[in-house]
Design goal:
The protein is an alpha/beta fold. The protein has helices at about 70-80, 100-115, 140-150, 165-175, 185-190, 200-210; strands at about 10, 15-20, 45, 85-90, 120-125, 155-160, 175-180. It has one domain (about 10-25, about 40-210): 3-Layer(aba) Sandwich (Rossmann fold), CATH 3.40.50.1000. The chain contains six helices and seven strands; from the N terminus they run βββαβαβαβαβαα. A seven-stranded mixed sheet has the order 1-2-5-4-3-6-7, with helices on both faces. The longest helix is centred in the middle third of the chain and has 15 residues, at about 100-115. Keywords: Carbohydrate metabolism, Cytoplasm, Hydrolase, Metal-binding.
Length: about 240
């Protein structure tokens, strides 16, 4: 059966995979070699959607309500500029609750890409929290599926998110997790995070240049570049 590059599902009971056209390659700066004993250089960065890339609007299926988080466009452009693969890993239990459809999830994806540019893969869990699937974060299935689609090793992948489930999924998959807290992030999640950053742009800068700006549970950098506001009302939980 022919699978189109626009979108496909991995299994009937697995995550939804949306694989848009491959990212255009730019002339990029090669990654720094890893020092002996250090982690291998990153090949991909996966972002959570709601509360990380875009403002969290509960069970949102309306593209007009999509608004980027501060620094989101600048952060993904930094990753693209290094030639790394980009992906999104998102729980969308609104599907299981009858509040969203595949078409609505895809419409929001298209709007995000209009605002932030293309991603190599979107891995979306449509299941509810009580279904026991292997893809809903904190399970590692979305990270595994996204890495498989991108052709990268989870050990060379970072997951950036705003809650503990994002970091737990990364850890379970053998990837690196970075927390970018928001007002909904619980204090215990912040305290438990091995790596965190005050904003998205700082997070990716530290991931890509750890010697210049090491990650850790604390520390800040200058404020991110401001984004032009998207059209539509503001809004948050999957």
């Amino acid at each position: 059966m022919l699978i189109t590059p626009a979108a496909h599902t991995s299994r009937a009971d697995g995550p939804w995979l949306f694989a848009p056209a491959r990212q255009a390659r730019r002339r990029v700066r090669p990654p720094r070699p890893a020092p002996p004993g250090a982690a291998p250089p990153l090949a991909a960065v996966l972002f959570d959607r709601d509360g990380t890339l875009i403002k969290d609007v509960p069970y949102n299926g309306d593209p007009g309500r999509v608004r980027p988080m501060p620094g989101a466009r600048a952060a993904v452009e930094v990753v693209r500029g290094r030639g790394l693969s980009l992906g999104v890993v998102s729980n969308q239990s609104g599907v299981a609750r009858g509040l969203l459809t595949r078409e609505r999830v895809a419409a929001v994806r298209r709007r995000v890409e209009e605002l932030l540019g293309p991603f190599g893969v979107w891995a979306v869990c449509p299941h509810g929290p009580d279904e026991g699937c292997g893809c809903r974060k904190p399970a590692p299935g979305l990270v595994y599926a996204a890495c498989a689609e991108l052709g990268v090793d989870p050990a060379r992948t970072a997951v950036v998110g705003d809650i503990g489930a994002d970091l737990a999924a990364a850890r379970a998959a053998g990837a690196r997790g970075v927390l970018v807290p928001t007002p909904v992030t619980r204090p215990e999640e912040v305290a438990a995070a091995e790596d965190s950053a005050p904003d998205l742009l700082t997070a990716v800068r530290r991931l890509l240049d750890p010697e210049d700006a090491p990650l850790g549970p604390e520390g800040t950098e200058g404020p991110p570049a401001q984004e032009p506001p998207a059209q539509g009302p503001a809004g948050g939980p999957p």
